Amino acid sequence: MKKVVGWIDQRFPLTAFIKHELTEYPTPRNLSYWWNFGSLAGVVLVIQIITGIFLAMHYKADAAMAFDSVEHIMRDVNYGWLIRFMHSTGATAFFAVIFIHMARTLYYGSYRAPREIMWWTGQVLLLLLMATAFMGYLLPWGQMSYWGAQVITSLFGAVPFLGDELVIWLRGDFTVGDATLTRFFALHYLVPFIIVGAVLIHLVALHQVRSSNPSGINLADKDNIPFHPYFTVKDLFGLCVFLTIYSYFVFYNPNLFIEADNYIPANPMQTPVHIVPEWYFLPFYAILRSVPDLLGGVIAMAISVMIFAAMPYLDRSKIPGGARYRPFYRIMFYIFVLNVIVLGYVGAKPPEGYLVPLGQFATFLYFGMFILLPFGSKIEEKWLIERGLPAEVEALIAGEEKQKGDRRKKKDRRQGKEASGDV
Amino acid sequence: MFRIIALVSLMLTKTVFASSTMMPLADVQMTQDMESIKRGAMVYYNTCRLCHGMKYIKYQNLQEIGFNVSEIDKLRGEKLISEKMISRMTEDVSLEYYGMVPPDLSVMAKARKHGPQYIYTLITSYTEKDNVYDNSFFPGIKMPDIFNISLAKGDLAKSVIEGKAKDVTEFLTWAADPRAAERKNLGKYVIAYLIILSIMFYAVMKRVWSRLDT
Hints:
CATH superfamily of the largest domain in chain B: Cytochrome c-like domain
CATH architecture of the largest domain in chain A: Up-down Bundle
Strand content of chain A: under 5%
Oligomer: heterodimer
């Protein structure tokens, strides 16, 4: 064994890689369970890709056969029901995990310097995930698949001048049809592998800047522990808990996340009474509908997803620990989460009665909070500094400063030695 | 995470209930009792199949609900055992009579919100007034009152028909998701295994992390 590893090490930095990225990779020891969701997202991605490849072996991307082939998978293919429900439940699980992962980043301010590139690659990953989920939803070729795709592709018609051409170009036809289905299938198979690539970039960035932690400042070396075995076992424990919950939905409630209408084959001649997107798009869908003008709605929806990228610049406070030591930001965080849930509720219902003004108010609040943040965070910072930071934060900062100082001295000494050695 | 999942599922179920604006659904729970499913299959075969096909159910699939080969042979007649159970009425004829093709029933129990309750309520809600037939759950429905529940006199006659409706609903529920029993059975083992594995990893984690506290 040793010989083999030695042989490889001469040609490929295997041991060095494992040491650097795993057994000696320093990870803050105070990470809470909220830090499990990154690795969970990675596992869900793998589940989706594997089940997806097996589904693709039996699925027919043809408007006349797609619906039948999904039923064929669930009835006739050995354990076809399992791979199909793992995949459909996996989509929900993926978004649940990603939303929590994002909420953690927002709560603890993990997007702040030097982790901007992590946050932005994450933003790109979110967009890719949304695109993949949207295209995948067309494939069962049910009523909701069809009309969902019809509605969302028609939104591109709001683009000035090019709109109509763009919609036809996207669909490959004047309405969603066979051409749309085949291209969505091709892209639904392709994009996940682009996601894998983007995840690698996300991880390279992570290993450069290292994990953030609940205290919000970089911990002293003594408070960093090797990733393996401490966090491998913690991630495995979290994974098992996650899989238990996931299995409950796969085995006992797999149709909870599938609209009943989607078991009716797509019918271009008959619009369902009420077209609703999947739950993970509902808040953004509510924003789209809350703006009276179509183009305005499309722009608002696009911004509502992309605005997270601006967080490192919108949040101007330097107080560490994200929401933990910042009462104003903490309140804003909870209002924001609540507001997103309200938007989701509005998005799920037909736009009638009090829901219209409620949706508009929630949309206003959604953007209002991002606009308020730069000013609020600065005022809050000033107020907190005047009031004095909590003792534990002061201690953490002092500890880190001291360690930085020690490191600098050590480095200077080493460099001094090297310099004298040269002479 | 649990809280978010709970909230989301709450939202979803609320939506489901809120959108059924018609009359309330009958409170029947599916037991998926094999005898009842088998009786329901016969009701489908003799009655519903006149107009409705079930293209995802083949004659051979009836073995899964307790029919033996000779029983199936009797039902299929000249047809192959691997053939689909299609409606006895051709599309042309149904278009002529009803102006539409009656929907396929293979996935009906999952193609409506609260599918089994929907089906049961629909077939037991026919009314008759001055020789005019209608359905209080689905006014203007084109499907005739095939079980004659609107003409049933007395509780006994009515309950016999309701029993038939229950059986056929059980059958359609099975047909929409024939792997449900297998799924739920396998689920027990998977979840038990995962819970044990979680506990074991928790113990390992505590042990590994305890090294740090010195």
